[in-house]
Here is the input.
Amino acid sequence: MDVINLRSDTQTLPTAEMLAAIQTADLGDDTYGEDPTVRRLEAMAAAMLGKEAAMLCISGNMANLACLMAHGGPGDEAVLDPDSHIFYYEVGGLASVAGMMPMPVQSRDGKLYPDDVRAAVRGRNLHYPIPRVLCLENTHNRSGGRVTPLDLHNALCDTAHDLGLTVHLDGARIFNAAIAAGVPASAFAEKADSLMFCLSKGLSCPLGSIALGSKEFIAKADRARKRLGGGMRQAGIIAACGIVALETMIERLADDHANARVLAEGINTVPGLSVDMDTVETNMVYVDHSATGLSTTEVLARMKAAGVLASGRPPRHFRLVTHRHYGADDVREAVERIRKALAQ
Ligand SMILES: Cc1ncc(COP(=O)(O)O)c(C=O)c1O
Here is the structure.
């Protein structure tokens, strides 16, 4: 078998059905609101998530940023986890583009808690920025794809609203969260004022993310998207894949979760490696390699030479993400390759 690429679920390639859908998609100029395939995808997504309106964006990063720009502006405060994707991996766009002030609240096991949010949100005072929006992330990437359960999610939304803040949910992998929590994704959307989810991760589209909210909110986010250079023309070629993804790719995410458990159990039999099984809730496996005595760079290099690609989370961890290109036998094969690579 070729290389087993478990760096991320973003490595997934479009399905044959997606490529065929591109060829037959009805197209128009989306900036004129005239691409029927985009309109159809946005209507489908809004109905699925129980929101009034939806907007297709190039990326999750752009969808998050356009939403933040619709929630607030320069000098306003965004309350968020310093381990969130928006804080950690989006090039500081929150501050440098939206002009907003981050108020960090540290997550624990990938979850924020209402008391910590309450403690971080200061009352109104001439000296303080105005707290505008609470950002949540579900599943939570840097904790290894952990899930905030629905009751905690709802309590966080209620807390934010009590404090006069709106809520934005970075739901890049909201369908993974929904499957793991055993609830429809719309349950997580209900109390969030806005959310975004990605088509380009486990759902296998080549690109595309969807921002959702009220009609009024999405009209504001649409202006922000345009300002970011994200106005598109015949974007139906992206939307055509998105429609196939929503119709055919969601339920199978459960297979990725099951394969992540198989992978993690296998990794726990490799000398020097360990995975805390409680952390494996969805499709990510964070592996502690510190007992090998090797650096993360060395571990990744040996694995690569043995035909397994992973992402480094130095100094102690690497990350493996299961996705539709690999089944249970493939992840078992990955474990054996890793075992050999580290035995040398
Ligand atoms: C939680 C989370 N939010 C947002 C994004 C950004 O998505 P994109 O890579 O499409 O910009 C990612 C990407 O990995 C993510 O994991």
Summary: The CA atoms of residues 34 and 207 lie 20 Å apart. Residues 328-343 form the longest helix (16 residues). The chain has a mean pLDDT of 98.
